[in-house]
Amino acid sequence: MGYDIERFVGYVNEGLLCSICRDVLEDPLQAPCEHAFCTACIHGWLVHHSNCPEDRQVIDVSLLRPLYRYMKNDLNRLQLHCRNREYGCEMVCSLESIDRHERECEYSQIPCSNAGCTVQIERRNLDGHLAVCEYRSRECPNGCGYTILSAEDTQHNCVAELRTELELLRSEMICRVEEAKHEMESRLDSQRRHMVQKESILQNEIEELKSQMSRMMTDVRSLMAAERQHRQELEQAELEKREL
């Protein structure tokens, strides 16, 4: 929907009105036939139709384009009243700056920031409302440190609140101890499995070393026997040499 034409000061060119809602263009788009529409209006129209609402020429969302620059400039220069005029705001802004003004307007109706409060209050009166709001929070004057709402003043009991807080802390501590215990057990199980796996690997390596040592001893004995045989042959050869 567009901007209510009644808000504008002075004459508004017909070409700056939405062809669907007949209000001043808001976030405008233009069809190839040069008819202009509010973005929300034309998108809603094209859900059920496939033509321009003015001249019935076929159009599609993909054919829509931004407004011509000179028309956009004319649109932005239009002067209009703040939407909070009925609450007392007398500001008149250009269309280009109206949104910025209305976001900060002292006459805007805004919700109370206190949880549970449904009051809508003018921005300029918010501080005064917060000072007396029945949903405002404050720290307990008795020193228990608990934050209370004014509406709960008569029901607040420091001892009961502290006891509840203590129980919550105790429950939280028990949960953390259990979590730490489970974590330690899991870590110990993991380390135990790792050590068993490591022990198995070391045992296999020891067996392999034993096997290698046994083969080496066999080779040494073979070499010693061969050496004795060789020595005997040398001695026999020496004897035969002497005889000759």
From TrEMBL:
Protein name (record): RNF41 ligase
- One Pfam family name is zf-TRAF
Q: Which keywords appear in this protein's UniProt record, sorted alphabetically?
A: Coiled coil, Ligase, Metal-binding, Zinc, Zinc-finger
Q: Where is the RING-type domain?
A: 18-56
Transmembrane regions listed in the UniProt entry: none
Q: Which organism is it from?
A: Ptilonorhynchus violaceus (Satin bowerbird)
Task: Give all residue intervals belonging to the TRAF-type domain.
Answer: 101-144
User: Which Gene Ontology molecular-function terms are recorded?
Assistant: ligase activity; zinc ion binding
Q: Which gene is annotated as encoding this protein in its UniProt record?
A: Rnf41_1
Q: Which GO terms describe its biological process?
A: regulation of canonical NF-kappaB signal transduction
ZnF (TRAF-type) intervals: 101-144
- Coiled-coil annotation reads 192-243
Q: Which domain of life is it from?
A: Eukaryota
